[in-house]
Amino acid sequence: MGYFGDIYDVSKSILTGMGVTLKYFVNPKTITTVQYKRPERRGEGELHEVPHLPDMHKGIHYLETEECIMCWQCANICPVDCIVIEGTRDGEVEGAYQGNRANLTRFTIDYSLCIYCNLCCEACPETSTCIHMGKEFDFTSYDQGSLVKNLLTDEKFTKEDLRFTTNAQSKIEELAEEKKRKAAEAQAARKAAAAAKKAAAAKKAASTPDTPAKKD
Ligand code: SF4
Ligand code: SF4
User: Fold this and answer.
1) Whole-structure pTM value
2) What is the CATH number of domain 61-168?
3) How close is the Cα of 74 to the center of ligand 1, in Å?
4) Residues with CB under 6 A from ligand 2
5) What residues pair up with 108 in beta bridges, in sequence order?
6) Which of 89, 115, 157, 194 could be bridged to 150 by S-S, CB 3.0 to 4.6 A?
7) What are phi and psi of 156, to 5 degrees?
8) Cβ of 73 below 6 Å from ligand 1
9) Residues 12-56 pLDDT 10s
């Protein structure tokens, strides 16, 4: 295309763009830009628009903690490894959150990594179905470290939360050791009982006189 052809194309493109601007100028109701302000930037009583979210909107997750069986299915399927779950089924941990037969000390999602694919929710077993993608979308921050959500408190994951999970870890390991020790003791007891039973049977057999053979 020649020089004048290029001028024609550029002019046409500018006029098309200006036509769209003019359309919204004369009929502002069709504007799709939403004047939304983050809560911390909103003045007292200041009006702001709430975006319309479609029914299928997949936003920030929430967890029905009491239904969670701590099976790690959601964390295992996550393609970007942004779910961290810690806890125990071996006993009580002070300050832990009560799941379904599980004590949860950490359940976080890092939103600097999450791609909102919904796989975690689909992997959650039918018996629990406790992790969901909600309507919430405002989980923003100026620093990457604050983009981790604590699903146990429904708030950002704080330094105190991290301190709690770190301290709880030693208790979790202690409970696991205790469980292992008890299982080993129980197995040893079972083995000893079986050996004693066998020895008693052998002794009984040795002390029983042979039955005389039948005469015709
Ligand atoms: S939505 Fe996808 S990326 Fe985000 S936590 Fe779930 S599985 Fe991971
Ligand atoms: S898949 Fe569901 S039940 Fe299992 S750990 Fe995740 S949220 Fe809990």
Assistant:
1) 0.75
2) 3.30.70.3270
3) 8
4) 68-74, 85, 123-125, 128, 130-131
5) 84, 150
6) 157
7) -65, 150
8) no
9) 999 999 998 898 888 877 777 777 777 777 777 777 777 788 888
